[in-house]
Amino acid sequence: MASIEETKPHNKRTSQGRRKIDIKKLEKKSNKQVTFSKRRSGLFKKAAELGILCGAEVAVIVFSPNNKLFSFGNVDDVAGSYLNNGAVVPSSSSTSTLVKGMIELEEAEEKKRQLERQATLASILENNNINSWWEKPVEEMGYEECDNHLATLINIRNKFSDASSSSTDFDVPKTKTMPFCGDWSLGLNF
Amino acid sequence: MASIEETKPHNKRTSQGRRKIDIKKLEKKSNKQVTFSKRRSGLFKKAAELGILCGAEVAVIVFSPNNKLFSFGNVDDVAGSYLNNGAVVPSSSSTSTLVKGMIELEEAEEKKRQLERQATLASILENNNINSWWEKPVEEMGYEECDNHLATLINIRNKFSDASSSSTDFDVPKTKTMPFCGDWSLGLNF
DNA sequence: CTGTCTATCGTTAGCCG
DNA sequence: ACGGCTAACGATAGACA
């Protein structure tokens, strides 16, 4: 008799579901992008959960492979407070050395990307005068409409910064803000 | 016949393993601490994986419930690069060198502008005394000793800052640095 | 690129040593 | 507090829409 698979050949799943992968640089560009999205979401979700569960302050900063900036958390609280309280002082010494080393590395590409990141951050900071790159305290995001569950989240104000720019120029990315992303409280989906 | 449970009553697992919890502030203080540790590790691991898989720059900053500071990632690249390189104004010499390298990339113009912008920002930052919370450039961490596996990680330079402070005051936590944490490359265990 | 689905893989809550 | 254990739970690779 016909086996199930033979009965419905078009129905056989080509995907066995998740497969194990080893943690190494993804080569397939398309895959990389998808994975980045998914995992970034996951990371932010984890960050949120940690913050809620433990009452911790959490901030996450991520540059995508394409140098897009994503961030989670009340960075101004977490990082800002630290900074304002007097961080370790700057030493201007390492600069030339660093640059030198970089050049010797002949990894211009990588360097370029770094510069882009720097530029991004710089621009953001410039625009916001060192204050929240997520633009505002969450209060303005209209949480009030949120139910009890969301209330918890206010504690963990979260926001996205998406700095886009023309791929060549990369000038000053205007910090686009995503007010909120759906069913936060329950699903913690981003 | 005696059921298995009855046969070995002392062996019956009191724990059904993981149980579902809802994401809300943990009340039990002991639990909270344990959960924080576990989940912080998990978060950092995720962050590392994201960075490796996708070639993304990731930085995470966490204040524990007790206001201890933990951080993951090449914060100096992600956020601090502009501090260490840009903030500390690149001297014209190193700048030109850098730019030179960039020219080979055919994007010198943009880069130069960026550097200039950074320089501008630098002064601003200097005035505001906003500098690296991450204390130093990673160079001091002795990555070079890392083997191939770790090589991947170099890209993702990682650092821990552990700053403790009186729970009430929260003043300026002194950034204690943990150079590296064990079997990073394979297990990604923290 | 964002979402859905599924089988699987990886994380972790609760316990105990 | 740390580490180990185990079963459940939650995240996600891959394929598709």
From TrEMBL, chains A, B:
<dbReference type="InterPro" id="IPR033896">
    <property type="entry name" value="MEF2-like_N"/>
</dbReference>
<dbReference type="GO" id="GO:0000981">
    <property type="term" value="F:DNA-binding transcription factor activity, RNA polymerase II-specific"/>
</dbReference>
<dbReference type="GO" id="GO:0000978">
    <property type="term" value="F:RNA polymerase II cis-regulatory region sequence-specific DNA binding"/>
</dbReference>
<keyword id="KW-0175">Coiled coil</keyword>
<dbReference type="GO" id="GO:0045944">
    <property type="term" value="P:positive regulation of transcription by RNA polymerase II"/>
</dbReference>
<keyword id="KW-0539">Nucleus</keyword>
<keyword id="KW-0804">Transcription</keyword>
<keyword id="KW-0238">DNA-binding</keyword>
<feature type="domain" description="MADS-box">
    <location>
        <begin position="16"/>
        <end position="76"/>
    </location>
</feature>
<feature type="coiled-coil region">
    <location>
        <begin position="98"/>
        <end position="128"/>
    </location>
</feature>
<dbReference type="GO" id="GO:0046983">
    <property type="term" value="F:protein dimerization activity"/>
</dbReference>
<dbReference type="InterPro" id="IPR036879">
    <property type="entry name" value="TF_MADSbox_sf"/>
</dbReference>
<dbReference type="InterPro" id="IPR002100">
    <property type="entry name" value="TF_MADSbox"/>
</dbReference>
<dbReference type="Pfam" id="PF00319">
    <property type="entry name" value="SRF-TF"/>
</dbReference>
<dbReference type="GO" id="GO:0005634">
    <property type="term" value="C:nucleus"/>
</dbReference>
<protein>
    <recommendedName>
        <fullName>MADS-box domain-containing protein</fullName>
    </recommendedName>
</protein>
<keyword id="KW-0805">Transcription regulation</keyword>
<feature type="region of interest" description="Disordered">
    <location>
        <begin position="1"/>
        <end position="20"/>
    </location>
</feature>
